[in-house]
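[Meeting: bench + compute handoff]

Bench side (C.D.) handed over the final construct sequence. Compute side (W.E.) agreed to return the predicted structure before the next meeting so the bench team could plan truncations. Sequence as handed over:
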Amino acid sequence: MFDLKWIRDNPDTFDAGLKRRGMAALSGQILALDGRRRAAQTKFQELQQKRNELSRQIGAGKKKGEDTGALEAEVAALKDGLAAAEAEEQAAAAEAEQLLASLPNLPAADVPDGADEKANVELRRHGSPRNFAFAPKQHFEIGEALGLMDFEQAAVISGARFVVLKGALARLERALAAFMLDLHTGEFGYSEVVPPMLVRDDAVYGTAQLPKFAEDLFRTTTGFWLIPTAEVPLTNLAAGKTLDESSLPLRFTAHTPCFRSEAGAAGKDTRGMIRQHQFSKVELVSIAHPDQSAAEHERMTSCAEEVLKRLGLPYRVIVLCSGDMGFAAQKTYDIEVWLPGQSAYREISSCSNCGEFQARRMKGRFRKAGEKGTRFVHTLNGSGLAVGRTLIAVLENYQQEDGSVALPEVLRPYMGGLEVIRPQ
């Protein structure tokens, strides 16, 4: 969401930002709606002042015993005009708000321009892909051969894009989540949260999944939304609050299931666990001071990277171009892990600085000590990491020729000392 005053003062900058997002200039349309609203508001105030003056005259006339019938008729006639002006103001405001709510965040100045992922820029790589003495398999081939990954029975139970993990793989998913949470809380200062996984409209609107992306979500018959990511409830911990400046930044982490309809994913990653309706993720969220959000973004990304470093998984970091960023982001780093079975880097974390975009929608503010006014906080979110995709990366990078999978040393304490997962 955007500040109308800022758009009035910076229409060219606003339109330039939209253009970088591949959109047409809209400042004229937005300001015209705002002009309608302000004109109706002025008309309402003028009519209200006139009514108040006439009412004063009526009161004075009655005290003198004068006939005030004409004045009373004039006051009655103003009623329709007041109602019309109020309705016009509300209609113009609602239309402007609806338009603004449909617009994505503007890209930061240092975000590369581009229409799609082809214009993303690689920043760095860590680790070297392993040289296999055999043809590496994809995760679903490994998991099925282990007898611990069952897509067929999941399809019987729930349909496509679901999986049943069993035995050591079920424990591996739990181990990965526990390892990530321990790292983020124990070393990086995040506070662990167990948030609701069913949320109201306002919460999903606040993080900008609504209204534009309703089809990507699952909704219950009672009006709740299943969270697509713990970003939604964690970021909304600041909704409607005015925080003390000294409390910032707030850093939260949570391990939750996530639910997505994958409405636009027809034909993409139909095999395996890469893109599912239900998956597990450890989320990182920061509520930051505007002056510190850029540094917080770098810090959050490094925290997510550290998970991969400890697991010994090769990865690269890219900065997304203006046309490939998520709706609420003003700058995004994607971390892509190497998957030898696909011979490709695939996204495992996306860390975004949303600036004040979400905070405006959810009315999250802070106050500096000794000052009356408030400012909007900045919100940031990132995967620390997607647990299912991390499991995939472990299976593919640590697979052995006999079909077994060695476990990274940092995970073995979480696996009861198990060093190798062998076929059942």
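W.E. noted at the follow-up: The first strand starts at residue 121 and ends at 126. C.D. will use this when planning the next construct.
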